[in-house]
Amino acid sequence: MSFKELLTYILSIIPTIYLIKRYYLDSFNKKEIQDFEQLNKYFINERYKNFENESQLVKDMLCNTVSYFKGMNYDLVKYILEVKHINLFDFIKLKRLIRIGYLKPNGEHNKNHKKGINHIIKLSILYFLFILYLFTFIYITSSFLHIESELIATSLIIGFIAIPEIWLLFYTDKITSDNNAIEWYKKNKDNFVKSKFLLSDN
Length: 202
Known about the structure:
The chain has helices at 3-42, 56-63, 74-82, 88-99, 119-145, 150-194. It has 202 residues and is mainly alpha-helical. The chain has a domain at 3-25 and 85-194.
C-alpha cells in the first residue's frame, strides 16, 4: 500500500474504534440498570438493615454487589445512604476523588496529593505524540514493508494503532473526569463540610 492508501485506510478505521469504545460505555449503562435492581432489592426502604445481625464479611459482600459501592465497607455505605441530601452524581464524584487520592477515605482533603501537569496540556501533548506516531507508522509501513494484503494491514493497524488509540480515548475520559471532579469539589466543598458529610481541610 502507498502512503496515501494506508492513510485513507487508517482514517476509515479510527472512527470504528471510537464507536467500539462508545459501545463499551453503552454496556456500562446496562450495568447501571443491574445496580438499580440490586439497590431496589436490598437497599431501598432501609432493607439493608435486615443484614445488621450478619457478620461483617456478609455485610461487606452485600455492598460489593453494587458496582458503586465496591471497595466500601457496610458501615460507610449505611452512612452514605442515610445522608439524604447527597445525589448519585455527587457520590460518584466524591468516590472518584477518594480513588485518585485527592480526598482521604474519611472525606478529608489530602494535602499531599500532587497536582501534576494541567490536564489540557497533558492531553494536548499525548494527542500530538499519537498523531506523530501515526504518521511515523504509516511512513515506515508504506516505505519499507510494501504491504499489499488487507488482512496483514488490518492486523498491523489493530496491533499498532487501535490499541494505543483505545488507551488514549479511555485515558482522556479518565483525566477529564478527574479534573472535573476536582473543580466540582472546590466549588461545593463548603456545603459538604457544613453538612458534615466531608471534613474540613483547615
